[in-house]
Write a structure and sequence with these properties.
Blueprint (H helix, E strand, L loop, with lengths): L4 H6 L5 H8 L6 E3 L22 E8 L2 E8 L10 H17 L3 E7 L8 H17 L5 E10 L4 H5 L2 E5 L4 E3 L3 H8 L5 H5 L1 H7 L5 E3 L2 H12 L45 H8 L6 E3 L7 E8 L2 E8 L10 H16 L4 E7 L6 H6 L1 H14 L4 E10 H6 L9 E4 L4 E3 L3 H14 L3 H19 L3 H5 L5 E2 L5 H11 L19
Parallel strand pairs: 3-4, 4-5, 5-6, 5-7, 6-8, 11-12, 12-13, 13-14, 13-15, 14-16
Antiparallel strand pairs: 1-2, 2-3, 9-10, 10-11
Helix pairs in contact: 3-4, 11-13, 15-16
C-alpha cells in the first residue's frame, strides 16, 4: 500500500499511518479492512477509486494494553466520510465493545462526502450508534488532528475525551464559508473552532496539546491510567490484601501549611492535590475550561481515583453553569467504571447574578446533585474550608450518600458566611443604630455566628461529617477508606428503566 505522506507533511501534519504508529507500541499495529474501497459511481467519482476509502482501521497495544484504533487520511479525498468509510469506523468501535478494550479515533476529515449523499449520512449514523453503545462500557478517545466539520464533530462529542492540538485542530458544525453565506458574519476557522476555542471557551475539548507528538504521548498516559472497560468489578486496583493499616502510615506535613490564615484569602488547590496523590500521577481534565473547579485522574499508592475539587484561586471556587457541567460529566465517567471519586471541598456557594440565572444555573447545578446522588462508586469527601449552602450539599455530602466525609479543623460548614448571616438575621435591629454602635453590634453577631456554626463540630455531632482529621493525615485516611470499601455494593435500588438527568 502506498501512502501520500508528503502531502500531509507539507501541511505540517503527520500522515494517518504515522499517527497510528506513534500512538501504539512499536510494531503492534495490525490493519483491518485495507482492501475496502468506495462503492459509489457519482459526480466524477468511480467505484473503487479511493484506497481503504480514506480511513485506516485496526488494532494494537499501548504499553501492552489492547486498543482498537482508526485514523482518517486527509490525503484521500480530504478524509471525507462515505458509506464504506463510516462503516469501517463503526466496525472498529463494535470490535472494541466486543473485545472490551478502549477505542481511539484520529479525526482529520472534511466531513460528509457530498457525492455519496444519503449513504454518507448512513455512515455517520452507524458511528453515532456504536459510540452510544460503547459509552460507559469502554473508554472512547478522540484526537482532532486536522479538520472536523459538520456531522463529523458529533462522534467526538459523544466520546469520553477529546484532544485538540495547536495550529492543527479545527471543529465546527458549520464552517466559515457557510456562516458567511447564511448570516453574513466573517470569521476565521481558528477563531470559530480552533484548539483554544474548544479548550478554553466552549469546553468541548478535554486536553489541549502543543503538538502531535506531545498529544500522542498524553493519550498513552491516559490509557495507562484509566480502566480498559467496565466489567462489573472494581476497576481502580491494585488493592493490597490483607489490609495492613499500620504498614501504610504516611503523613504529609506540607498539607498543614497550605491554607492561608484568613478564610477570604485564596490558594491553589493543586498544592493540596499534589500532597495527597502519588507523585506525577495527576492528569488534569478540562484544565483550561471553568477553572473555578479542578478535575482529573490520579493514583494513591497505585489505586486509580478521580479528583473533583473547588479552586479558590479562581472565582473563589464558586460553582457556576460551566463548572457544574464539568463536574457532573466527570462524575458520571468515573462512576461508569467504578473509579473512586475523591472530592476536595472549599466552596462558597453557587454563583449569584442575572447572567447565571439566565444561563440556567438551576438546571446546571442540578446536574451535580444528580450525578453525585446517582453514583454508586466509592465516594469520599474532604471539606478543607468553606462548604456553604446548597453547594455544601452538592459537593458529595452525606446527604447524597458519600461513603465518608471528613473535615479539616479549618472547615466552615454553614448556610452562608458569617458576615452575610449577621446582616440577614440582624439587619432590622442594626438599622436604627449609630454607625459605631452598628459596627460593634454587627461584629459581635459575626463572632457569635462563627463560634456556633463556622466549624465542623455541629456537623460531626449530627453525623454529617465522620471525623475531623489533620491535613497531614488526609492521604493515609483516604487510602485506608479505599481499602475498606473495595468491593462496595450499593444497597439502594429503585426498579425503573432510568432516571431523567437535567441536561
Amino acid at each position: 500500500m502506498e501512502y501520500n505522506m508528503e502531502k500531509q507533511h507539507k501541511l505540517g501534519k503527520l500522515h494517518a499511518l504515522e499517527r497510528i504508529c506513534m500512538v501504539l507500541d512499536q510494531d503492534s499495529f495490525r490493519e483491518i479492512g485495507s482492501g475496502i474501497t468506495n462503492l459509489e459511481d457519482a459526480f466524477n467519482i468511480k467505484k473503487g477509486q479511493f484506497p481503504y476509502d480514506g480511513v485506516i482501521t485496526g488494532y494494537g497495544t499501548i504499553n501492552g494494553q489492547r486498543v482498537m484504533i482508526f485514523a482518517e487520511d486527509f490525503t484521500v479525498i480530504g478524509g471525507t466520510l462515505g458509506k464504506q468509510h463510516g462503516f469501517k469506523i463503526a466496525n472498529t468501535i463494535k470490535l472494541a465493545i466486543e473485545n472490551r478494550c478502549p477505542v481511539i479515533g484520529i479525526n482529520d476529515s472534511g466531513g460528509a462526502r457530498i457525492q455519496e449523499g444519503i449513504n454518507a449520512m448512513a455512515g455517520y449514523g452507524e458511528i453515532f450508534y456504536y459510540n452510544t453503545m460503547a459509552s460507559g462500557y469502554i473508554p472512547q478517545i478522540s484526537i482532532i488532528a486536522g479538520n472536523c466539520a459538520g456531522g463529523a464533530v458529533y462522534s467526538p462529542g459523544i466520546t469520553d475525551f477529546i484532544f485538540v492540538i495547536d495550529d492543527i485542530s479545527q471543529m465546527f458544525v458549520t464552517g466559515p464559508k457557510v456562516i458567511k453565506s447564511v448570516t453574513n458574519e466573517e470569521i476565521g476557522a481558528d477563531e470559530l473552532g480552533g484548539a483554544n476555542v474548544h479548550a478554553q471557551t466552549s469546553g468541548v475539548a478535554h486536553f489541549h496539546m502543543p503538538d502531535e507528538k506531545t498529544c500522542f504521548a498524553a493519550v498513552r498516559q491516559l490509557i495507562g491510567t484509566i480502566p480498559p472497560c467496565y466489567d462489573g468489578k472494581s476497576a481502580a486496583g491494585p488493592y493490597e490484601d490483607p489490609v495492613r493499616y499500620t504498614d501504610n502510615v504516611e503523613f504529609n506535613e506540607n498539607l498543614a501549611h497550605i491554607l492561608p490564615e484568613h478564610s477570604n484569602q485564596s490558594y491553589d488547590i493543586h498544592d493540596v492535590i499534589y500532597g495527597i496523590v502519588d507523585k506525577d500521577s495527576f492528569i488534569e481534565v478540562h484544565e483550561e475550561f471553568a477553572k473555578n473547579v479542578v478535575i482529573g485522574f490520579a493514583k494513591i499508592k497505585g489505586i486509580t481515583i478521580g479528583i473533583v475539587s473547588d479552586q479558590p484561586k479562581y472565582l473563589a471556587g464558586v460553582l457556576d453553569c460551566d463548572s457544574s457541567d464539568k463536574i457532573a460529566r466527570f462524575i458520571r465517567y468515573c462512576d461508569s467504571y467504578d473509579i473512586p471519586i475523591i472530592t476536595l471541598t472549599d466552596v462558597p456557594g453557587f454563583m449569584p447574578g442575572k447572567d447565571q440565572e439566565y444561563k440556567g444555573i438551576i438546571r446546571h447545578g442540578a446536574k451535580v446533585l444528580y450525578a453525585y446522588s446517582e453514583a454508586t462508586t466509592i465516594k469520599i469527601n474532604v471539606i478543607l474550608r468553606k462548604a456553604y449552602g446548597g453547594a455544601y450539599i452538592a459537593m458529595s455530602s452525606k446527604h447524597l450518600r458519600a461513603d465518608f466525609v471528613y473535615a479539616w479543623p479549618t472547615a466552615e460548614i454553614a448556610i452562608m458566611g458569617a458576615e452575610g448571616a449577621a446582616d440577614i438575621l440582624y439587619g432590622k435591629q442594626m438599622k436604627d443604630l449609630s454607625p459605631d454602635e452598628r459596627a460593634a453590634f454587627r461584629q459581635g453577631k459575626i463572632d457569635e455566628y462563627n463560634e456556633k456554626f463556622m466549624n465542623p463540630h455541629v456537623a460531626v455531632m449530627h453525623g454529617y461529617v465522620d471525623e475531623v482529621i489533620r491535613p497531614e493525615a488526609t492521604r493515609e485516611r483516604i487510602y485506608a477508606d479505599l481499602l475498606i470499601c473495595r468491593g462496595k455494593r450499593s444497597l439502594e435500588h429503585v426498579n425503573k428503566k432510568h432516571g431523567n438527568i437535567p441536561l
